[in-house]
Amino acid sequence: MRALTRLILPAILLLGACGGAASAPASTETAGIEVRDAFIVQPPEGREVTGGGMHITVTGAPVVLTGAATSIADTVELHTMAMEDGMMQMRQVESFPVSEGAPLVLERGGNHMMFFGLKPLQLGDQVDVVLTFTDESGAEQEVVAKAEVIPTAG
Q1: CA 118, CA 105: separation in Å to the nearest integer?
Q2: What phi and psi, each to the nearest 5 degrees, are found at residue 6?
Q3: Can you tell me whether residue 4 is helix, strand or coil?
Q4: 98-115 pLDDT, tens digit each
Q5: Is residue 80 within 8 Å of residue 53, measured between CB atoms?
Q6: Whole-prediction pTM value?
Q7: What 3-state class would DSSP assign to 3?
Q8: How far apart are CA 3 and CA 9, in angstroms?
Q9: Distance CA 122, CA 29 (A)
Q10: Alpha-carbon distance 73 to 80, whole Å?
């Protein structure tokens, strides 16, 4: 019996530790914000500007994405992309709303993020991007997304 206890107790503690580690992403779920498929495009050699994106969904009350930051860039801006007079126009915006019925898709050729003053990036690198959201009451919440550095579309 004593040998069985010696085996079971460490297993229970190990499972508890694994559950604790897994609960970090669950806090994002609890807050009702889910970020997936985050990416940053590897810029051409010698360039310090690139784009990136992700999919953001919320459960419950709507939120507004009001900013983004990362240690690999001096500045991150939110941008729209729209056709005007037969030409694609990119414009910086202060925020993007996100609600259950209207998830936010930031992607190439559409609304996206721009990264300025980049540090060198390698394909496949995983980069933390800190997203700031504001709810209807004005309370802010930060969510850290892991963005993969992907190749420029060919």
Answers
A1: 23
A2: -65, -30
A3: helix
A4: 999 999 999 999 999 999
A5: no
A6: 0.77
A7: helix
A8: 10
A9: 30
A10: 20
